[in-house]
Amino acid sequence: MYDLTTNVSTSLSLTEARQSQRKINGYLIVGPELQGSGHFSGSVDAAGHVQFTVTDAAGNAILFFEGAMQSATSLSGDYYSCSGTQESLCSWASGDYGIWSVALT
Questions:
Q1: Phi and psi (nearest 5°) for 93?
Q2: Any bridge partners for residue 88, and if so which?
């Protein structure tokens, strides 16, 4: 995970990830250099495009991720911070934004 606003990179893990048809959910862990760990939920379409929102303990949207499957074992894309409780308030204009990638280990 690389934050373009602050020029900081850190680790990113998706744990407890589950997929049921097109719905995905689990827990996202951000390394200590950045903030944003929390439960995530979203969707993946037939073409491999993925999007999900990370929420804090109070249920507020804190990060929004979008991207695509690069292979059967890896995902990558962009992410944006959120400035409110709704996914529609997540954009690069809200604050931090950057790029991300994960691979099955």
A1: -75, -15
A2: none
If you compute the radius of gyration of the chain from its CA atoms, what whole number of angstroms results? 13
Whole-prediction pTM value? 0.88
Residue 61: CA count within 13 A, CB half-sphere: 21
**Where does the pLDDT of residue 88 fall: very low under 50, low under 70, confident under 90, or very high at 90 and above?**
low
**Residue 68, amino acid:** A
